[in-house]
Design goal:
- The protein is mostly helical.
- It is 84% helix and 3% strand.
- The chain folds into two domains: 1-30; 38-133.
- This is Autophagy protein 16, interacts with Atg12p-Atg5p.
């Protein structure tokens, strides 16, 4: 029985300590309502409430502006990606056309060289014929 009394005494002491700690920190967990706002120990007057409301409104406007700017950035990012894709495809097309141009230019130069050789051969034959006639 004495053991139960000592256990109860210890339990009562622990509960007392817990209540004391709870009371020390109780004000940290109080919920403050907007109408109960205290500034320097005095209630906020209507002018300060108006200022607070104005600041809240401006804050909301700024948040909407931020969201709008985020949307614009997203659209611009998509546009940049699209333009990059178009630039890449245009570069590929340019490379293909440049290769085709180079091939045609090389073929043209070969044809000109063949034609010049043919004309030179004909001129040499004509000169030879003229010399043989003399």
């Amino acid at each position: 029985m004495q053991q139960k009394d000592s256990e109860l005494a210890v339990l009562a002491e622990k509960l007392t300590e817990r209540d004391a700690k709870h009371n020390q920190y109780a004000e940290l967990f109080e919920v403050i309502k907007p109408n109960d706002i205290i500034h320097g120990g005095e209630s906020i007057d209507k002018e300060n409430v108006t200022i607070i409301d104005t600041l809240k409104s401006e804050n909301n406007d700024k948040e909407h502006n931020i969201e709008d700017l985020k949307e614009r950035i997203e659209v611009m990012t998509k546009n940049v990606e699209r333009l990059n894709d178009e630039l890449i495809s245009t570069n590929i097309e340019n490379n293909v056309l440049q290769d085709k141009f180079d091939n045609l230019n090389e073929e043209y130069n070969k044809l000109v060289q063949r034609w010049l050789r043919k004309v030179q051969k004909e001129a040499d034959e004509m000169n030879e014929n003229v010399e043989n006639l003399k």
